[in-house]
Amino acid sequence: MSSPSQNALYLALDQGGHGSRAIVFDARGKKRVESHCSVESRVEGERVELEAEALVASLIESAESACRQLGEARHQIEAVGLATQRSNIACWARDTGEPLSPIISWQDRRAPDKLKGLDHQTVHDATGLFPNPHYGASKMAWCLQHLESVQAAAEGGGLMLGPMASYLAARLTGAPALADPANASRTLLWNIHSRDWDAELCRHFSIERSWLPACTDSRAEFGQISILDLALPLRVVTGDLSAAAFARGRPDPDTAYVTVGTGGFVQRLTRQLVDGAERLLNGMVWADGEDTWYSLEGTVNGAGSALSWLAREQGVEEATITRQLATWCDDIEPESVFLNGVSGLGSPYWRGDFPSRFVDGGDLSERAVAVVESIVFLLVDNLRAMDEVMPPAQSLVIGGGLSQVDGFCQRLADLARVPVRRSGEREGTAKGLACLLAGQPEAWQSVDSTRFEPGQGEGIRRRYRRWREQMDRALAESA
After folding, report:
1. What whole-number distance in Å separates Cα of residue 89 and Cα of residue 39?
2. How far is CA 423 from CA 232, 263, 329, 376, 426, in A?
3. Going from the N-terminus, what domains does the chain have, and what CATH number goes with each?
4. Tell me, what DSSP letter sits at residue 424?
């Protein structure tokens, strides 16, 4: 661990699904200024896209705004970091950086046919993942087949494709594209053992290695970003979930880190790959040449997106649900349970075509709480799968939008039977990114948490047993 200069500042760029955020932190983790620029996605059936140039512009706009707020103190910024949603992919021109495709979101599931013929165990052994259309490779293969601009660039020798983070970093700096471990590992093309592109998987998807960015560490010389009168080194690129694990400083291997945004994720961080995790994901969240952290991860595809699904199904504005959700969770113990296959049923089940449905009815409020409880149930199932291959977590740290609902956190504590600490960091990804930029200093400040102790939870455990019975029946019927 390093000791950064007392006056050093760090600019964290957090590109999320709904916008780009630029936050400047000092060397102890105190936020100095913040700026946000919204972006919109296009959703059509299984397709979820964002405009590439709009994302670049949003990052530049938010970074410039943050630096203006700093005034002369902007000259104290030592480095910039970039964190993005993993599994988002892009295609672009090698020489000009011109986008040749939209940014295709991790939520996009347009190309499951490209996964045919892959052996699940072989893929898991090589990449830590399972064949899944959420990951980038099938979407890159789709672009090669369907987009004339991509085909022409491939034929002319000027094609680049890969993680969105690689595109954004190259576009912001003008430097050759590089791929960091956290984002490369979510393409389904990156070998977790060699830390490089896997030749067999590239062949399966008809992707030439020369089209992919060179693989590097999480901390590297990614180039310089021009912001107002500054030329700042981009030194860290990683995934949003990977960065968030460092928001409170160096991770604790005895803690499970839960994030509930559009999707839900639970991860345990380890120094070595965990063997025997046949239903979970292995990944690398950080490597800098000296320090390496791996993750064992579970995925709930339908978290915030499941509430969006409910709003569409009920014909109401999503805000109608989100405004009342905290109150409903405090007041309602629903009779119904929700079998949550929104965006595909993730770990530890891996059923891409699992139909979402309620067992028993209920009004909007009861159904909203049943959706919330389904997310809790899936998170707990992932935690129990983790307990099969490593010592159980002693506590949970939770962040993301749904973590602000007390009833959600309490249900999770009651069912998991461990304390849940809601992070006081509202910008966990950005703060974790700044911690990594600063070298994970010992004196990193953390905002106090709200703690939820396990209670009796008889109601949630009864509904979980009922949900488990219904899930087992539905999984057997769809086998």
Report:
1. 16
2. 30, 18, 20, 17, 7
3. 9-238 (3.30.420.40), 249-422+449-479 (3.30.420.40)
4. S
Closest alpha carbon to 449 in 387, 388, 398? 398
313 pLDDT tier (thresholds 50, 70, 90): very high
SS3 content of the chain, % helix, strand, coil (to 5): 40, 25, 35
Place of tokens 């706009």: 61
Confidence (pTM):
0.91
Burial of 52 (0-12, 13-18, 19+ CB in 10 A): buried
Query: Which tokens in the block code for residue 241?
Result: 């979930």
pLDDT tens for 353-367 read 899 999 998 999 999
Beta strands in 271-391 (DSSP E): 281-287, 292-300, 337-339, 357-359
CA distance 275 to 201: 22
With tokens 């005034």, the residue in question is 71
User: Does the structure show a pLDDT above 70 at 4?
Assistant: no
Q: pLDDT tens digits for 393-404?
A: 999 999 888 999
